Structures are given as C-alpha cells and as structure tokens.
Amino acid sequence: MFFVLLGIPGLAVASGAGGGNHLDLTSNWVGYASLIIFVVAYAFVMLEEYTHMRKSKPVLLAAGIIWGIIGWVYASHGFTHAAEIAVRHNILEYAELFLFLLVAMTYINAMEERQVFEALRVKLVNAGFSLRKIFWLTGVLAFFISPVADNLTTALLMCAVVMAIGKDNIKFISLACINIVVAANAGGAFSPFGDITTLMVWQKGIVSFGTFFNLFIPSVVNWAVPAVIMSFAVPKIQPVGGDVDATLKRGAFVVIGLFLATIATAVSFHNFLHLPPMMGMMTGLAYLKIYGFYLKKTHKTYKGDPDYDSEKAEERLGDTVAFDVFRNIARAEWDTLMFFYGVILCVGGLGFIGYLAMASQTMYVSWGATNANILVGFMSAIVDNIPVMFAVLSMQPDMSIGQWLLVTLTAGVGGSMLSIGSAAGVALMGQARGMYTFGGHMKWMPVIALGYFASIATHFFVNSRFF
C-alpha cells in the first residue's frame, strides 16, 4: 500500500488545507512521516524470526507516535477533539475484537490444559498410518479444526504430530508443514470466527453469519489443489507407531461443550438480539468460570498421594493443581492481542490522515473491485492479513456481498503463498526449525498460487448469485 500511495499523483505537493474540523495531511510532512514510521515498524514485525523481538513492540510504539503527531497538529490548529473522537472509534473497534479473541483463547487454553489436544496427538501418533496417510489426515484435521480453533493452535498441534511421526525425515516434515499451513488458513476462511479477517467482517455486520459458509467449496479447492500435487512427493514409508499415552482430564468434554455453547451464544446475540458478538463470548466466559469453580471445589488427588484431601473429589492423572480459569486467561497470546492494538491504531491513523481514502480510490475505482481484492491476497502474503483487511474495512468500498466474500477469501488464504504470510507459517518455522523453512515453502509457491486462483474462479462460479 505504501508504494501504491507513492505512485498517486499529487502527493508531492505540500498541503495544509483543512475543511471543517478535518485537515488534509496526505501531502504534508505529517502524512509522509506517519507512512515511514508504519513501514519501519512493520519491517521489524516481518523480521521477528531473526531479531527475536516480539511483533507487538514496534507497532505499539508506531501507533503512539503516529497519533501523537496527529493530535499535536490538530491541537495546534484549534481542533482539540477531532483526533480524540477518531482514536476513540478505533479503540472501540479494537475492544470488541480483543474481548472476543480473549475468550476464544481462554477456551483453547482450557482445552489444552484438560489434555484435549494432547490426547488427539497421541492417538494419531499411535495409529500406525503411512506418511502419505498422515499427510492427508493432518491436512484434513487442520482444515476442519481451524474454523473452530485459531489457525495458529491448529497448525502447532498438527506439526507436533508430523514431527513425532516423521522424526528426521526432512522432506516429509517440510511437505506436511506446507500442507498444514495451507489447510489451516483455508479452513479459517469460510468460518465467521475461523480467522481474524472473517471475524472483523462479521463483527462489522457486512456479511451475515450463515453467508460465510458459501466460501466452503472455494476454501476446499484452495487447499486441495496444492495438496493433491504435493502428495505425490511424499515418501512412501510406513513409520513405527509410538508408545506414549495421554488421558483426558476430568471435565474435558464439558469444556468442549461449553466452548460450542459459547459460540452459539455469540451467534445468537449477533443475529437475534443485534448485539456485538463479543457480548455473547463474554457471557460464555461466565460458563467456563462457573464450571471451573465446580472443578476447583470438587478437586482432590488419589488416596495413595500424601497430599490426599478427603473433602475433595477425585482428579485424574494425579494432578495436584485444581482447574484455574485465570491461569488460562493469563496464558492467552498477549503479544498477538497487543499487536492487533498497534496495527488497528496505526492503520486507523493513516486512514484519519486520508491515505486509505486515496488507496480506495486507486484500488477499487481505478482498478476495479475484483482486481483490488485479488491484490489484497498477495499483499497479505507479504505483510499480514490483519492490517490489510482492517484497511479495506476502513475504506468501506461500495461492493456486492460477492466481492466482500472474495476479499474475505483472498485475505484469509493469500498468506499461504509465503511462510511469513500467516501466523501459522511463522510459528511452524520456529517449531520445525531447519526442516520447514522459507525457501522450502517458496519452492511450492507456484502450486499454492494455482490453488489460490482456482479458489477465486470457484467462488465466481458457485457464488455468482452474490455478485
């Protein structure tokens, strides 16, 4: 977007003109400085793997500086509340996203603490499947788990499976990780809460809850096309099954049921009561808190344990620590949540300056909605789908539901083209270090791009009624 904006005629002419209580700063030093600050901050985000500096830090600083400059300029012109009103609007949008994600992350952590994911991993490792079956099975599971859980958790779980089975088979682990990343991103694209991009579009009220599921077939195509081609390169080896075991902790299935009930509550609040989905999610957090209180009150260890407490009920696995919902809240991805704050405020600042309106005019009027939305997918592979989608939502281009579904699809699956294009890819490069690499993923980029364009064509074919 930075380079697109630099190519727009008129940016080189300094302007301080203001109309009403809004200043045009797009051709002013304030606009240029804000763009440079954001680009530098995001460069640090993209280099997180090498600098080991958490991605939230540079964007938090950038957001503060950008809005600080904007506030100073507006105050110096006598518009003391214009910037304040704008930033409060951005904070409200962030607060809704933050609370929704915090509850979702808490439930995921609770299921992890109850051994749900570990039990699934152990069953797959002990199943004795061939490498090719594991390739397909982990891809299918990643595709169908990510719409409920986030793509990062799903990818890490499936990667643990392929590493436990593949051991030192670098070729298999690399191919399986690529397949998992593509599947997890594609699976999240057709669910309103499967990816941050779909969540933002749903919370904005642009696309209704049920309409997202029309992207199911395009999402399947996006994953299946590269998966079929890559599967021929998977070694035909029968690995030896493992001998590890894992048992679900008490209440594991109840926690899963409460998570599904929480999602149903969020959907009901939004669809029938016309309240923000995060209200339903926060209500669902109360379900977990109350059940956690029951688990804590009825917790004890085995009678053979010296710390046995006869006043508490039996806890499996000999766990001496009762269920604590606040531990699960504390283990949320706080760096990610802070990163979203920085990104939303940065992009909101650039939009307040006027750059998003200019970008919208260039992309969605001059180029056309279809070309612009296809470009969004490529941008999300290089940068990240969060700021790209937030920018599109801030632009508010006049598009049909079909085009909004298209940009939801492209922003969600476009990040699969590069290993750094999604949180799942970045995480797996760390988990399978030396086996799943940027270069290894890049070799299969043409195949992944083929799936990308095939999914777009499928969307136009099966969802033509929405255009």
Termini distance?
26 Å
- Would you list the SSEs in sequence order as H and E? HEEHHHHHHHHHHHHHHHHHHHHH
Beta-strand residue fraction: under 5%
* Proportion in helices: 55-70%
Radius of gyration: 24 Å
Offer a concise description of the structure.
By secondary structure, the chain is mainly alpha-helical.
Question: What does this 3D model show about the protein?
Answer:
This protein has a domain of 231 residues. The protein is globular and about 70 Å long. Strands 1-2 form a two-stranded antiparallel ribbon. 68% of the residues lie in helices and 1% in strands. Helix 2 runs antiparallel to helix 4 and helix 8 packs antiparallel against helix 9. It has 22 helices and two strands. With 467 residues, the protein is mainly alpha-helical. The relative contact order is 0.14. A hairpin with a 2-residue loop joins strand 1 and strand 2.
Write the layout of secondary structure elements.
Blueprint: H1 2-6, E1 18-19, E2 22-23, H2 29-46, H3 48-51, H4 56-76, H5 82-113, H6 116-126, H7 131-145, H8 151-166, H9 170-189, H10 196-204, H11 216-231, H12 252-271, H13 277-297, H14 325-330, H15 334-353, H16 355-367, H17 369-382, H18 385-395, H19 401-413, H20 423-431, H21 438-443, H22 445-462
Antiparallel strand pairs: 1-2
Helix pairs in contact: 2-4, 2-15, 4-5, 4-15, 5-12, 5-13, 5-15, 6-8, 7-8, 7-9, 7-11, 8-9, 8-20, 9-11, 9-19, 10-18, 10-19, 11-22, 12-13, 15-18, 16-17, 16-18, 17-18, 17-19, 18-19, 19-22
Features:
467 residues, mainly alpha, two-stranded antiparallel ribbon, 68% helix
